[in-house]
Design brief:
The relative contact order is 0.05. The longest helix is centred in the N-terminal third of the chain and has 40 residues. β1 and β2 form a beta hairpin. Strands 2-1-6-5-4-3 form a six-stranded antiparallel beta sheet. α4 runs antiparallel to α5 and α13 runs parallel beside α14. It has 17 helices and 13 strands. The radius of gyration is 37 Å and the shape is elongated. The chain is α+β, with helices and mostly antiparallel strands.
């Protein structure tokens, strides 16, 4: 054999090896890419980090197979690709263990078996065993199944078959058949998943609609078709108050088609007084594609007619009962004051009447809180705020003076040394109501012999009222619910401390009506600090 013939044969072998390497990697990369798309589409990712690493690694390996000059590199360097593919499979199984991705082991197994013979069979089996067992070992919740043994054995068998098939002319045909079978299984899984999603959407009792970016409808369910979505002369649509008529362009579905997103928008369909009137809450949220580009919206609608009617009936009942209770309680208070004014009243009778008076005043406070809550309800009349130039210092000082007797009963000292002149445009009566509530809570939930610190200050944009106590504090779990109406913590409910759970909710409504906010910082056994922030007009903030 001449040297030129040997060189030509060697060159042909190198070119054949390069084409086989590129073909193998491209096929594997294509299948993995399909698997990645299916995993994203079916939302079964359990380990985002492993999924991202697998995606990055498969692109790097496939790119290297296309770009690198494999005919000029040592043969064993090319074998790094099937090893890298094995790592990709391990990461994908770790990211989505229930999608049957173990079948992907056949690709590096056939590659290594065909290229390296028996050594390749051993390497492929080792990679599959270590990779698969590592994934199982990292997830203790997975039960022990026969696949723990079957998968490595299967990989070894596939590698051996590939080694033997490389010696025969039918190796290419067998590889294509396996690839075709896998694609059919993937399509069948996708079709099954699509049917499952359709069945689930039709089974729920709330409407779901998927919109494209241009507003066209892609997917909907049966419940959505039953929801009222349009306003007409027969069925008019009204805003959350039930009285303000809405134009067709202001309806939730029309707004979602225009690209607007919102949460729990309440719309009444039907005129006031109509027995067939329905209330629908609608949420529109954006949808993004795999490149995080805006891809339309999901619109969810719920019929909440029964809930809304029940809430309104409850609020009407509370307001009515509270008004009926307030009149006789006020009369009782007046007669008690007259009785206590008599100087010749026996001491025992005076003590009894004072007890009655304290309990009547407590009932009046509770009724006032309930009435204020009903007034400030999101379905009722808004709080009335009469703004005027007000110095917060005397307002807070007056609240301290009023609370001093109650504090003295528990030997609690009130420190108002932090009060500074602070001019705002606010309703002095409403702000006094907020401060009274915060000081009352500080005394009520403080410890005997404790201390309450109160201060006011301002900066260029805001005025601040701070009330700090050294009482029992509030747990981190209960802090988010502290300003809910009628909320009382578990620790307080187990004590004899009375309260309606309305004071802080009302205080927050008052502060927000002024354009401000009220926040709290607290921890168990470390006391609480309530901070009221009120806005200052620009001109006012500069001159104060």
């Amino acid at each position: 054999m001449s040297s030129s013939t040997a060189s030509a044969r060697a060159g042909g072998v190198q070119r054949t090896r390069e084409r086989a390497l590129l073909l193998n990697q491209l096929m594997f990369g294509g299948v993995v890419l399909l698997a990645i798309i299916l995993i994203i589409g079916t939302d079964v990712i359990q380990n985002v980090t492993a999924f991202a690493a697998a995606t990055l690694l498969i692109f790097v390996a496939t790119g290297a197979a296309i770009i690198a000059p494999w005919d000029r590199l040592p043969f064993l360097v090319g074998m790094l690709l099937p090893v890298t593919d094995a790592v990709v499979i391990t990461l994908l199984i770790a990211a989505s263990p229930d999608t049957g991705l173990e079948i992907l082991w056949v690709f590096p197994a056939m590659w290594l078996g065909a290229a390296l013979g028996l050594i390749g069979v051993g390497v492929a089996t080792l990679l599959a065993t270590v990779g698969y067992w590592t994934v199982i070992g990292l997830d203790p919740s997975r039960p022990f199944t026969a696949s723990v043994v079957i998968v490595p054995i299967t990989v070894a068998a596939v590698a051996t078959a590939s080694h033997l098939s490389a010696r025969r002319d039918g190796a290419h045909r067998l590889l294509l058949e396996r690839h075709s079978k896998q694609l059919r299984q993937s399509v069948e899984r996708a079709r099954h998943q699509e049917d499952l999603i359709t069945d689930v959407l039709d089974a729920v009792d709330f409407g779901v609609a998927r919109l494209r970016v241009d507003g066209s409808l892609v997917v909907t369910n049966e419940a959505n078709a039953r929801m009222p979505q349009r306003s007409s002369d027969v069925v008019r649509a009204f805003a959350a108050d039930g009285l303000t008529a809405l134009e067709p362009r202001d309806l939730p579905l029309a707004r979602a088609r225009q690209g607007e997103f919102f949460e729990d928008e309440l719309v009444w369909y039907g005129r006031p007084g109509d027995d067939r009137r329905r209330a629908v809450r609608t949420t529109a949220r954006p949808v993004f594609d795999t490149d995080l580009q805006h891809d339309g919206a999901i619109v969810v609608s719920r019929d909440v007619t029964a809930e809304e009617l029940a809430l309104r009936a409850r609020e009407d009942l509370v307001a009515s009962v509270s008004h009926e209770l307030r009149t006789p309680l006020t009369s009782i208070t007046g007669y008690l004051d007259l009785a206590l004014d008599h100087s010749d009243l026996p001491q025992s009778a005076r003590r009894s009447l004072e007890i009655v008076q304290r309990n009547v005043e407590r009932l009046l406070e509770l009724v006032s809180d309930i009435l204020a809550t009903s007034t400030a309800s999101r379905r009722g009349v808004e709080l009335t705020i009469h703004r005027e130039r007000t110095d917060l210092a005397p307002v807070v000082q007056a609240a301290i003076e009023a609370a001093t007797p109650r504090a003295a009963e528990r030997e609690i000292s009130i420190d108002g040394s932090g009060i500074e002149e602070t001019i705002v445009h606010a309703d002095a009566g409403r702000i006094r109501q907020v401060v009274d509530n915060l000081i009352s809570n500080a005394i009520k939930y403080g410890r005997d012999g404790g201390r309450v610190e109160i201060g006011t200050t301002h900066d260029r944009d805001h005025a601040w009222i701070v009330v700090r106590d050294d009482g029992r504090g509030i747990s981190q779990e209960e802090l988010p619910r502290l300003f809910e109406r009628f909320f009382r913590s578990d620790a307080v409910r187990k004590t004899t401390t009375h309260g309606s759970g309305l004071g802080l909710a009302i205080s927050r409504d008052i502060v927000r009506a002024h354009g401000g906010e009220i926040t709290v910082q607290s921890a168990l056994d470390e006391g609480s600090t309530f901070i009221v922030r009120l806005p200052l007009p620009r001109a006012e903030g500069a001159s104060v």
